[in-house]
Each structure stands twice: as structure tokens, then as C-alpha cells.
Amino acid sequence: MSTLAEILLAPHQKDALTADCVRIVERHLNSLRSLRGLALKAGLAVFKAAKPDLIPRAIGRLLPEFIAALEPLYARFGQSTDRDFSLFLRKNADETVEAIMSKVDARAAQSSNDTARSTYRKLRGNIRDELEALLPELSKTLSGYLG
After folding, report:
1. Which of 8, 10, 101, 111 has the greatest CB tally within 10 Å of its CB?
2. According to the model, what pLDDT value does residue 87 have?
């Protein structure tokens, strides 16, 4: 069985997957109406002021790390009786979200920008919650690339 990275990061799929993930995130951000969502949008605006292409660049850079974080789940999926990776990820939502958040946490910790680190610390809980909300669509998208 091929690894998740071999499948999803193959040259003929990586750019399309990245673009799909950007659309998912931007659509989700645009739909936020709660106070929490407005706080997340405001925090993101701080980052986007410095880098307008922040979301596409971040997803392009982080996608290989996120996929690596999901690799153990994909291996378990391959050994399970489950046939739908999307459903498998959603059944294991806490583990899936934490795997991805661990990569975001590591990146934030490495930042030399004090404002970025501080803003991330304040928004981490919200980011985790939003990732949970994105998981159904994200997992379906990933599964669609698995053939």
C-alpha cells in the first residue's frame, strides 16, 4: 500500500489538493459570524496585513507536514475493516485534529515574530475548534484524492 504522502503529494495531485484546501479554508472563514469567528478573522487579518497570500502559502508549506501527521491514521485505516478514509478520520476526529494541530503548534513555536506567536497562543483554541468544523469537508476532499 502506498503512503498517504506518496498519493496526495504526487506531482499530478499536490497543486490541485492545495487549491482545494485553500478554497475550503477561505469559504469557511468567510462563513464565520460568531464572536469567536470574528476574533479569528481579526487575528488572521493581522497576519494577512503582512502577507496577503498567507493562506495559500501556509497551506502549500504545511500540507506535507499535515499529511505526514495523518500518516499513522492512514496506516491504521489500511489495517482496519473501514473502507472510507473520510469516515475513518471523522470517527477518530480528536486524534486527527490533534495530529494536525501538533504541526501548527510546532510551526508557531518556531516563529521569530513575537506578535505572530502571541496571536497564535491567544487563538489556538479557536483554531482547533475551526479545524474540527472543517474536518468533514477536509476529510472528504482528502478521500477524493485517494482514488
Report:
1. 8
2. 97
